[in-house]
Inverse folding.
């Protein structure tokens, strides 16, 4: 197994939606033993602590979009550290809600462009997050990062996306909650997508293997964005956007082990963990286990836990 230099970057982003709690996510991952798990696999782990949002104008209390300026501040700071750490190793962004990916992915894309390699994004999520600030009914910006980093219009005030990720380089797996506006936009796009019906009928390994082959064929960098709600809420309750019918523990570990086997993953988001909604840390523990699988832990190496 290739040993990696891993940078843990806390992104306590809580501005992407109205239900608070995701700001506690980075420290929950640390408490659940993420550093120990990765170091135990032989990786060099450097914890860079928690970021703060770049300076930004105050947000109005009322508005169609929630915490717009604060989210712009987070996007600036996350993109900057993504560009820097990609040159040195594998950044793992500890969220924080999925608005974190507005910055993490655009920063990684800038780095990929600087070294002349294409960026691919694997989006493991119940939602497409393909909205823009103009199309979202909820006004919650955690539903917009894919729209932003693929270059959709409507992100006034955000940093210009210098290196948009081509739609055909994005693969979404686990979809099961898509509104009409997102559906129409997605159907008109070149984004690859597998909803849970596809997975039920055909399995999860085939579509992922096809996508990883495309990444390898193009000598691409691979950013993986893992949302807690990719998982079924029966096994991962600590998320404010629960949608029944998600991936099982077995399916999620298969995805992560395939990512490790491919050797292609170059950056990772762990997002939407709300410890306030967890049950004795079980969701944080599972997400740490999945991260470990993506970085080399095999099925025979998984710890047994007792919750008695």
């Amino acid at each position: 197994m290739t040993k990696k230099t891993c940078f843990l970057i806390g992104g306590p982003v809580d501005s992407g939606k109205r239900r608070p709690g995701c700001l506690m996510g980075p420290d929950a991952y640390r408490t659940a033993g993420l550093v120990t798990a990765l170091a135990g696999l032989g990786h060099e782990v450097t914890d860079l602590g928690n970021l703060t949002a770049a300076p930004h104008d105050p947000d109005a209390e009322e508005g169609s979009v929630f915490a717009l300026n604060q989210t712009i501040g987070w996007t600036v700071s996350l993109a900057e550290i993504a560009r820097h750490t990609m040159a040195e190793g594998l950044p793992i962004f500890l969220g924080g809600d999925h608005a974190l990916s507005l910055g993490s992915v655009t920063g990684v894309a800038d780095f990929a462009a600087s070294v002349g390699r294409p960026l691919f994004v694997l989006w493991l999520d119940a939602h497409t997050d393909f909205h823009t600030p103009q199309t979202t009914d909820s006004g919650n910006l955690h539903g917009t990062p894919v729209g932003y980093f693929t270059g959709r219009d409507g992100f006034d005030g955000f940093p210009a996306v210098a290196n948009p990720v081509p739609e055909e380089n994005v693969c979404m797996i686990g979809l099961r909650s898509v509104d009409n506006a997102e559906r129409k936009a997605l159907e008109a796009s070149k984004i690859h997508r597998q909803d849970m019906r596809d997975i039920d009928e055909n399995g999860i390994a085939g579509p992922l293997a096809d996508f990883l082959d495309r990444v390898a064929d193009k000598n691409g960098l691979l950013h993986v964005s893992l949302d807690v709600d990719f998982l079924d809420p029966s096994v991962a309750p600590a998320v404010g956007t629960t949608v029944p019918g998600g991936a099982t523990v077995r399916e999620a570990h298969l995805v992560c082990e395939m990512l490790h086997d491919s050797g292609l993953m170059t950056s990772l988001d762990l997002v939407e963990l709300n410890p306030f909604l967890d049950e004795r840390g079980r969701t944080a523990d599972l997400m740490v286990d999945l991260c470990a699988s993506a970085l080399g832990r095999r099925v025979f190496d998984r710890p047994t836990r007792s919750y008695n």
